[in-house]
Amino acid sequence: MATASLRAGASAALVAALLTTLSPLATLAQDETEGADAYQPPHDRPGPAAERLLYNSFFVDRAPLDIEAGNMDIYLYGLKTEAAQELRGTPGVELIDAPATSISLILNPAPAPEGELNPFAIPDIRRAMQYLVNREAIAQDIYRGAAQPMITHVGPSDPDFLTVFDIDRGAGYGYDPELARSLISEAMIAAGAELIDGTWHFEGQPIRIKLVGRVEDERRDIADLVRAELEQAGFEVAITYDQFAPAVQRVYSTDPAAFEWHIYTEGWGRGAPQRYDVGSVNSFNAPWLGNMPGWREEGFWQYENEELDRLGKALYRGEFDSREERDEIYRTMTQAGLDESIRIWLATVNNSFPIRDDLEGVTRDLVAGPRNAWALREAYVPGSEDVRVGHQWVWTERTTYNPVGGLSDVYSVDLWRNLADPPILNDPFTGIPQPFRATYEVETAGPEGTLEVPADAVTWDVESKTWTPVAPGTEAVSKVTFDYSAYTGSTWHHGQPITMADAVYSIAQSFDRAYDPDKARIETALAVTSRPVLETFKGFRLTDDDKLEVYVDFWHFDEDYIGEYANPVSFDMPWELKAAMDDLVFEQRRAAYSNTAASRFSVPWLSLVLKRDAGLVDRTLRDLERDEVVPPGVFEFGGRTLVTPEEAVARYEAAQEWYDEKDHLVISNGPFYLEQFDPPAQFAELRAFRDPGYPFKPGDLYRGQPPALVVSDIMAEPVVPGEDALVTASVSGPGTLGLRYLLLDPSVGEVVVEGRAEPSGEGQYAVTIPADLTGSLFPGFYELYLAAESDALALIAERRIDLEVLP
User: Fold this and answer.
1) What's the topology of domain 710-805?
2) Which of 57, 470, 650, 790 could covalently link to 735 via disulfide, CB atoms 3.0 to 4.6 Å apart?
3) What is the rounded distance in angstroms from the CA atom of residue 498 to the CA atom of residue 511?
4) What is the mean pLDDT of residues 419-427?
5) Containing H/E element for 483?
6) Cα–Cα distance between 713 and 719 in angstroms, integer?
């Protein structure tokens, strides 16, 4: 299912184009493109190209020196802007540019206690912040042109930017500190505050804003810029400079009503490209998904917005009848997010990731550059068995390895994606979900019809802890049949066979965690955020050839999105490890899956790379082995018994042996296994997994570099009022192309006209502004935005020109 971007360990910057040039993605030089046929696999054995990935921490300020000196082969953390500019062109080093980070401010909207005032609980003040931040200065001065200003949550090169083109470009939220201060003053006086000697007071006390600013990157400068503007607006500002772990703990693990913070400089590591976004628009706007203040944690004050939740769930669950209706929901949510202004979007940062030029086989994702599931599987250095991987951190106190409520930061995910094979992944170029290690067939009666669910399909009954047949007459919108044989023909890293029991346990675990009242009281946020999705699943059926039929109330105009949504199985870890973790979290109450539950109950946030936590799980495994436990009911599925006591004991023993040997319990099924993880040393070693049944070998997954999408040869004459105005442009790139345009009056921030340019030849387009419209334009300069799109690439390439209207 779709996921939102990850909280970034930092937001580093690299060379991006200005608004008046090509989009950052279009700057990828075509003469650097490596076609898939250029890759020469080093061998044909199952598993990855390299024998070992060696992860080490290199602080970003020293990383350019270390990559130049040959101390690492690839750095997965974006360089600072100045360092990237200095390193570009260095012999032996190549820079991969990608718009991999988004920067925002999150505002705490909780109401203050009696006798106090929180300015950001007032919507008018939150909206005033849109005028108080200087996005152009951030993009051009702080990031030195290596960023593009953002107004909405949508990046300016994302496909859905065209869905909200007029909302974003026509929002009118330019830097206007005088207007911002005026709006703040009106709202503060209305709330009962007084401006005394230039400082706002409430009931005799100065109003102090707690600003948390990250220090590893340019966000420290952003925090200073925001502080200066707030002080000019009359607020006292207490700024705290924090690195990743303490900042995340202070903001995302505390009750907003405790006021540990008022503003935080967020950084979001952007994941795979998404042709039709569903996760980000929900995560950054709608409370139900657990990423808005309050985080859906029991006992915390919660930001609530019923309309955004209703729309967000409808979008997430495919409750629309056409692409047009989907787009309208998306637009409404985007506008509502702007109106609420809980997040103030600042910039999309074009990161530069350095690699040694002798590193072969690196696939480059449109959005994340080398931080993708393909890159290090195929990467190798000729003549060497190792690839040395650098990152800002390998481990922090907030870097947590558990597949239920962990793996939520870039440091863990950038490593984890080489340890586990997901069933489905977004294509790195098109952004469309595609089969990865599972295949699927989709049958749908949607958007208006339904299919009958077979009588022998089952659902998990939380109360009885059994699989029960579906009710007679049960219907579903879609049926997806999954073939997981590329998993079941191989083994987990600890040598135990992957079976359908692993799939079945994963499904039962999800429903039990969400609907068992005792478990939901413990992991509240996980429960309440998963129910709106789980309730759309109507039945499961295991066929005679071990294919899994899934019946679900979900429809999408692209059937691959139905396949992605309907997949109920992650195949991330073996069932016995999940059973032991469940026992530890829900029965023993000695650890927690999520950071908020860990904080609430004062137990460890379960991380399987830490010997402390893995040891607790290991002791639980020993208890389960001793008692020959087979989780009750879970493996009695569709009239079949999927696990015997002897098989369960073998599983428990294999996991214990793994722990005894490696001092951790990260066990999965990907091309590498985790041999060693040393938090104090900031070091991890991944070794190649060469099981004969592993389905991929070098060359199978290499994609190279995406082709460019370019807008060029723009021709425009000054506009004569009362006459047709013509603008022509060329678009080059793969697939079926198109060109959108939008004319903006910058003096008032309003959209004059928008539409689609007419094709006028091979790769040629014409924009005609009719005479009746030009006759209504005042003399001066207008901004004309041209945005190219392609069905083969999940990006747009935008150009802006200043169009002069003559007197």
Assistant:
1) Immunoglobulin-like (2.60.40)
2) 790
3) 22
4) 97
5) strand 478-483
6) 18
**Location of structure tokens 């930061």:** 409
Question: What is the tens place of the pLDDT at every residue in 308-362?
Answer: 999 999 999 999 999 999 999 999 999 999 999 999 999 999 999 999 999 999 9
Residue pair 158/164 in contact (Cβ under 8 Å)? The answer is no
Percent of the chain with pLDDT over 90: 92
Write down the CATH number for the domain with range 100-348: 3.10.105.10
Exposed/middle/buried for residue 466 (C-beta within 10 Å: 0-12, 13-18, 19+): middle
CB 507 within 8 A of CB 540: yes
Question: What is the DSSP code string of 533-598?
Answer: HHTTEEEEEE-TTS-EEEEES---SSHHHHHHHH------S-HHHHHHHHIIIIIS-S-BSSHHHH
Tokens for 240, please give them: 């705290």
Least Cα distance to 661 among 672, 674, 648, 680 occurs for: 674
CB 605 within 8 Å of CB 400: yes
Please answer whether residues 92 and 68 qualify as being in contact, where contact means their C-beta atoms are separated by less than 8 angstroms: yes
Residue 125's nearest CA partner among 219, 226, 233 is 233
pLDDT above 50: residue 36: no
237 HSE (CA, 13 A, CB side):
21
Mean pLDDT computed over 622-639? 96
Take residue 431 and report the two structure tokens written for it. Answer: 């952004």
Instruction: Tell the residue number behind the tokens 């870097």, with chain if given.
Output: 399
* Residue 447, preceding peptide bond in cis (omega within 30° of 0): yes
Q: Which amino acid does the sequence have at 450? A: T
pLDDT in tens, 94-153: 999 999 999 999 999 999 999 999 999 999 999 999 999 999 999 999 999 999 999 999
Q: Where in the chain is the domain with CATH 2.60.40.10?
A: 710-805
Q: Which long-range contacts (CB under 8 A, 24 or more apart) does 171-174 make?
A: 171/130, 171/338, 171/749, 172/748, 172/749, 172/750, 173/130, 173/131, 173/338, 173/749, 174/131, 174/749
* Residue 398 near residue 244, CB atoms below 8 Å: yes
- The rounded percent of the chain whose pLDDT value lies above 70 is 95
The 8-class DSSP code of residue 141 comes to: I
Q: Which of 512, 8, 432, 422 is nearest to 247 (CA)?
A: 8
Tell me what the mean pLDDT of segment 713-733 comes to: 96
CA atoms 319, 323, 328, 333: torsion sign: positive
Q: What is the DSSP string of 617-684?
A: HHHHHHHHHHTT---TTTTEETTEE---HHHHHHHHHHHHHHHHHHS------SSEEEEEEETTTTEE
CATH 3.10.105.10 spans which residues of the chain? 100-348
Instruction: Decide: helix, strand or coil at residue 177.
Output: helix
Q: In the predicted model, what is the mean pLDDT of the chain?
A: 93
Structural tokens at position 742: 């939008």
Beta-carbon contacts of 348 under 8 Å, excluding residues fewer than 6 positions away, are 16, 24, 99, 101, 102, 103, 147, 148, 150, 155, 156, 157
